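Sample pair:
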Amino acid sequence: MVALPEAHRKEAVRRLEKEFARRNFVPVESDDPEKNQPGFLDHVKILERSQIHSGVSGGAVPFQKWPYLMELATSIVDKRLVTVLKARQLGFSWTTAAYAAWLLTFSPGTNVLMISKGQTEAFSLLDKVRFILKNLPPSWQHPLSPDSRSEIGVPSQDSKIIALPSTEDAGRSETASVVIQDEADFHEYHAQNYAAVKPTIDGGGQMIMGSTSNKRQMTSLFKEIYRSAPGNGWHNIFIPWHARPGRTEQWYAGVRDTVPAIDLSGMSPEQFMEQEYPGEEQEALAPPRAQSIFDRDIIAGMADDCISPLRTVGPASIYQEPRAARRYVAGTDVASGVGMDYSVTVVVDVNSGYVVADLVTNTLQPEDFSAASMEMLDVYHNPDWGIENNFSDTALTVARDMNYPRLYRRRVGRGKQMRREYGWRTDRMSRQQLFDELRASFNAGHLTIPNKYGLDEFSTVIASPGEKPQAMGGAHDDYVIALGIALMVKNERGIVNNAKIIRLPMLG
């Protein structure tokens, strides 16, 4: 084998190292604390615009190391995949710009790709990076080439930043070690851009995705990724409007009362504030109040009381132990068990309306799910149990084969032709009845869900005029349906129990 000349060898090694860094991106941490991200921020200047409601005069000011911004800055250094759901004007853009400037300054071989809603926004984000770089201590500054509206390069570090608007082809031909998407939920081609840069992510690159919630588009890739975390590998951060010092209720009211008509774009001031200045994660992710069928204030109040299970029984969660002289009822929505929709069984205290136990899974096959559900139901002495059997009767068949004693049977036919068949069957009429009953009980405060996952599902169920209630795109309603079935089983005029019809009281 012929040895490479030393200069060629070093160049080959440099290229290999550069490619490795891009495929397995890890920010370079320095032994000098000032050159690490927290210390670097001490030397960052940002351009603050005046804010009449906060008394901020604007101009070049030091980066404010407020707790929520330091949490954000730390997370985007430590985590490879980060989603940030936020209110407006909280410093996300400046924090990510500072991160990009830090990488260009101290991490050789870094390629940063920034994708924004439009060209104006892309140029503005890159201008923030440029402002930070040009206001660093002189010893940290490097000659920039190119230095254009859409690209900044640091030849001495072999690093660059490219800023692009969200177009159909944005990111397709770019090789990046870090991808930053600003206001991702408003990108016209977000799904296409994500697909274009996904090889970077799969190869070990980093992606930071931040946005306020676009309430005009409840089906979005951004929301789906956020809701699926952390199981999908992403790290979520939520930043409410009041995280920034100086933002009080008075400030909030001042903003709401002075929203320019051009910003409203057909929304009411209240709807605008829900979208742009959410105070809670659920408020940010929930549909507009006009489309929600379950009371948003009740959901918010209930969220504060969500608890961890007292214990588990197999894959099931127990939130309240069985009590003497209490009657329970259960409902089940069965999925295919292959990692998509969820199979859910809930147990409800008939007297209080409290969900005392649940089993939520998208990995168990129907037969295993049915057996696990029965193990949970045994804790509550085998309550009346309704199992949906629209698309598969496997779970129901298993329950019957294992001689579960109190299976719900629905009425079929009328008069002398009336008969009873095992399982809950959802059709257009029964689905509407289920949601009517469920909505009435929930909004009257007669139901309590201690599981945050289950409660989150209630916040995503919408009903547009003339449309059936359903989870908005990217969300699930399996927990909602299971609880609705339990409620319908309880509210049926008769429940078959060992061939005897018994009558149960109404909730509340």
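The mean pLDDT is 84.
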